[in-house]
């Protein structure tokens, strides 16, 4: 068995890049140093912050809740509240909600659960069904991500939080970087720093990522050592997203060339720096003409998705009251929906014709 490079006790972690082996005690010290360095370097928190920790009930977010709770004992004035968005994913989310309740009560941390069903009227499972019926071209993760971000910001503001801390680790961040390269979306890449989002809006709550420089395998070890890792659980929709493939590809690369993940993170930081100098990603933050939340467009993405799903209907009078830019956005989206619908009907008709011909 490998021995700790610092004290000779049995090692539980070996860095494949430096070859350094660490025992439990020295791993936890290394983990703590790494996260505190990120917090200091990017000035993630202020002394009297009310921090809403976005928790999914998975290992990364529970590790973050545990870590910040511990750190808060050294920072008088910090207040920690766990914020969990329950999307309504059957056979998955109910377990992670239970896990949050257990960990939060053990730690003595307040928690708030926000449910898609209560806030939007539908669970994610139902939304995915509606989207299929309406022939919308979006993957479940699109609805989940947009509505989750929307509700996190709204709820964090309502409970008076100054900042939202998320459990994204280095692996998550470079996966998102790769996915945005595939989409050629440099505005989103410019916003992938440890402090994200357009900050200049009175309703926008700043988001920070304290695990920005921590590998997923390190957050997993932290969760195991602190007793809240209960095996690897994957959301049933995960395999439908591009992230699934990108993640596999990056893990294979890291296996073959240790250190690749850190190099990609450095590449991302350089890209963000260059994009900031070009003013990309710093566009004006608008206010959604429908719900009043911060938005990159005259109508926010959450309201647009609700309209496309048919779960937000606007009367002709309400539509007429909206500013012209918002009206135009909605009208062109509805036209696109009608065109898509007509095409789908045509395709169904043709394939039915083919089926009938084939059965002859
Ligand atoms: Fe939501 Fe997709 Fe993550 Fe599942 S995998 S929780 S649907 S973003």
Attribute tags:
Rossmann fold, 360 residues, binds iron/sulfur cluster, six-stranded mixed sheet, alpha/beta
Question: If you had to describe this structure to a student in words, what would you say it looks like?
Answer:
- The protein is α/β, with parallel strands linked by helices and 360 residues long.
- It is built from 14 helices and ten strands.
- It folds into three domains: 1-34, no CATH class; 42-277, Rossmann fold; 301-358, no CATH class.
- The chain has helices at residues 24-41, 59-72, 93-107, 116-120, 124-134, 140-158, 170-182, 186-190, 216-225, 242-256, 260-277, 301-309, 316-321, 324-358, and strands at 13-14, 21-22, 50-55, 79-86, 110-115, 163-165, 195-196, 206-208, 286-287, 294-295.
- α2 (59-72) crosses α9 and α7 packs across α11 (260-277).
- Residues 352-360 have low confidence and may be disordered.
- It binds iron/sulfur cluster (SF4).
- Iron/sulfur cluster binds at residues 87, 140-141, 144-145, 235, 237-238, 241.
- The site of iron/sulfur cluster has 9 residues, from α6.
Provide a brief overview of the structure.
The protein is an alpha/beta fold. It has helices spanning 24-41, 59-72, 93-107, 116-120, 124-134, 140-158, 170-182, 186-190, 216-225, 242-256, 260-277, 301-309, 316-321, 324-358, and strands spanning 13-14, 21-22, 50-55, 79-86, 110-115, 163-165, 195-196, 206-208, 286-287, 294-295. The protein is built from 14 helices and ten strands.
């Amino acid at each position: 068995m490998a021995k700790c490079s610092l004290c000779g006790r049995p090692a539980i972690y070996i860095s494949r890049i430096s070859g350094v082996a660490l025992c439990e005690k020295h791993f936890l010290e290394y983990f703590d140093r790494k996260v505190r360095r990120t917090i200091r370097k990017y000035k993630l928190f202020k002394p009297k912050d009310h921090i809403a920790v976005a928790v999914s009930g998975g290992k990364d977010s529970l590790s973050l809740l545990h870590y910040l709770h511990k750190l808060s004992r050294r920072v008088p004035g910090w207040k920690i509240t766990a914020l969990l968005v329950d999307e309504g994913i059957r056979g998955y989310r109910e377990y992670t909600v239970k896990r949050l309740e257990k960990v939060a009560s053990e730690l003595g941390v307040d928690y708030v659960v926000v449910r898609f069903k209560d806030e939007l009227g539908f669970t994610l499972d139902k939304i995915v069904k509606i989207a299929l019926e309406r022939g919308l071209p979006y993957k479940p993760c699109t609805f989940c991500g947009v509505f989750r971000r929307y509700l996190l910001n709204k709820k964090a503001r309502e409970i008076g939080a100054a900042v939202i801390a998320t459990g994204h680790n280095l692996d998550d961040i470079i996966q998102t970087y790769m996915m945005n390269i595939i989409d050629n979306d440099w505005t989103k890449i410019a916003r992938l720093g440890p402090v994200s989002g357009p900050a200049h809006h009175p309703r926008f709550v700043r988001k920070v990522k304290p695990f920005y420089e921590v590998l997923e395998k390190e957050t997993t070890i932290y969760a195991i050592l602190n007793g809240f890792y209960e095996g690897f659980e994957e959301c049933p929709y995960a395999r439908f997203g591009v992230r699934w493939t990108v993640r596999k590809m990056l893990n294979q690369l890291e296996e073959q060339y240790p250190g690749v993940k850190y190099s990609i993170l450095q590449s991302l930081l350089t890209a963000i720096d260059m994009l900031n100098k070009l003013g990309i990603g710093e566009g004006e933050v608008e206010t959604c003409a429908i719900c009043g939340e911060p938005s990159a467009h005259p109508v926010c993405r959450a309201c647009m998705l609700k309209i496309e799903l048919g779960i937000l209907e606007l009367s002709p009078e309400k539509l007429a009251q909206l500013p012209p830019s918002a009206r135009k956005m909605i009208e062109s989206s509805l036209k696109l929906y009608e065109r898509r619908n007509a095409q789908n009907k045509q395709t169904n008709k043709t394939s039915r014709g083919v089926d009938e011909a084939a059965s002859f």
